[in-house]
Amino acid sequence: MLISPRRFCKSSVVAKALKGRRRKSNTVNLQQATSVLDLSAKLLKEFFKVHPMEKVRHLISHFSVFPSVSLNYMTGSTDISFQPGADGVVCLGDVFSLMENVHTNSDRLIVVLDEFQEIREMRANLKETEAGNAGKQLARDKSNTTLIRGV
């Protein structure tokens, strides 16, 4: 975890530390995620930037809620979303499981959650049982994920 006051260039330090590393990494800015469901979609979109969908498509078929994936042929970008009203905690669990199944312990994916304090807003919007399930999911999956936290 990387902790310092706001506006102390933590994101730049992390980006520089990751540059040139052989391990793959994903960075998601939590300020841009409006809900746990949106966070799930953003994590999956970042995951597809380092893993072509063709190679992991069979793993996505095991998701509890199948994501909607569209490709913009003009820009080459991929848009990913989940059905509105889907359980964000379940979708987040599916995304973490995908990350866990694709990577081995020796080649773990580095996941950077920038502006981590925003998770409080998401948690406030969850029902109490969903928040508990999200915490359990994060605790279960953290063993195979490196987390760099900004405050």
Give a topology summary.
Blueprint: H1 10-18, E1 25-29, H2 36-50, H3 53-60, E2 68-71, E3 78-81, H4 88-102, E4 110-114, H5 119-125, H6 128-141, E5 146-149
Parallel strand pairs: 1-4, 4-5
Antiparallel strand pairs: 2-3
Helix pairs in contact: 2-4, 4-6
Question: How do the helices and strands follow one another from N- to C-terminus?
Answer: HEHHEEHEHHE
Number of strands: 5
Q: Which spans of ≥5 residues are poorly predicted at pLDDT below 50? A: 141-151
Cα-atom radius of gyration: 15 Å
Mean pLDDT across all residues, rounded? 79
Structural class by sheet pairing and helices? alpha/beta
In percent, how much strand structure appears in the residues? 5-15%
The proportion of residues forming helix, as a percent range, comes to 40-55%
Please give the domain count.
1
Number of helices: 6
What topology, given as strand order, has the largest sheet? 1-4-5
Main beta-sheet annotation: 3 strands, parallel
What's the end-to-end separation, in Å? 10 Å
Shape: globular
In short:
This protein has helices at residues 10-18, 36-50, 53-60, 88-102, 119-125, 128-141; strands at residues 25-29, 68-71, 78-81, 110-114, 146-149. The protein is of the alpha/beta class.
